[in-house]
Design brief:
By secondary structure, the protein is an alpha+beta fold. The protein is built from five helices and ten strands; from the N terminus they run H-E-E-E-E-H-E-E-E-H-E-E-H-E-H. The strands form three sheets. The protein has a five-stranded mixed β-sheet, with helices on both faces. A three-stranded antiparallel β-sheet has the order 2-1-5, covered by helices on one side. A two-stranded antiparallel ribbon has the order 3-4.
Length: 231
């Protein structure tokens, strides 16, 4: 299943690359500097909610596809797009109708809503939740590194921004030599695609073109191979 999903992701990546403009740029720096991006909750995330004073309310919840979850006493809580601190503050405000000076803690137990996928010429194509600031080089390391066939100077990062998909380029060769200009922070939902080197791309294209002929030759040669095996 993972291999099929990664293959589909690779196909999507190639399609986006063919439509993207040639002037790909490094994404703008995070306004917070080098600090890790604040994680914003989304559907399928698992949260732990604790409300004090006693009697304490402790609930493990999963954010529904509509971006909400249900909590005792107050019902539905909007979670999608908010940090855990923001969710806790909203719960405290609503809980104050039922308890005096409530104290609420919300923690992320499992990030299921926002994942980064790494596909193409990597040793282990993979997808994993992004719960902290992660750079391109770290994502490639989690995928086992690039293969010998990779065009590692042209690593693509495809990022959805509203209704558009933007393309950014990271030079992994330069990053390995200590030049970290293009080793930028990834964002939830990013697709990292490592393309094959040009000769390999040509080889793949030739193989795809010859595949139908290869099947016909195998079909025609089948009876002859059977006779040779029986003799």
């Amino acid at each position: 299943m993972l291999a099929r999903g990664c293959g589909l992701a690779a196909g999507i990546a190639v399609g986006v690359l063919s439509l993207a403009c040639a002037s790909a740029v490094i994404p703008p720096a995070n306004p917070a500097g080098e600090a890790a991006l604040l994680y914003r909750v989304g559907p399928s995330d698992k949260l732990s909610v604790r409300v004090l004073p006693d009697p304490a309310i402790e609930q493990a919840v999963v954010v529904r596809p509509d971006g909400r979850f249900s909590l005792d006493l107050i019902g539905d809580v909007v979670a999608e797009g908010h940090t855990t601190d923001e969710i806790a503050a909203a719960i405290e405000e609503r809980m104050s109708e039922y308890r005096q000076s409530p104290s609420v803690r919300v923690s992320l137990e499992e990030a299921g809503s926002t994942a980064v996928s790494v596909v193409g010429e990597v040793k282990t194509p993979t997808s994993f939740p992004l719960a902290r600031g992660l750079r391109v080089s770290e994502a490639l390391a989690l995928a086992g590194g690039v293969t010998e066939l990779a065009a590692s100077r042209r690593v693509r990062v495809i990022r959805g921004e509203g209704a558009e998909a933007k393309l950014y380029v990271a030079n992994f060769d330069h990053i390995n030599r200590g030049h970290a200009e293009s080793d930028f922070l990834l964002e939830p939902g990013d697709l990292v695609y490592v393309p094959p080197a040009q000769p390999v791309s040509v080889g793949y294209a030739i193989r795809r073109a010859l595949y139908p002929l290869e099947q016909v030759l195998r079909l025609l040669a089948g009876p002859f191979l059977g006779l040779l095996a029986a003799s």
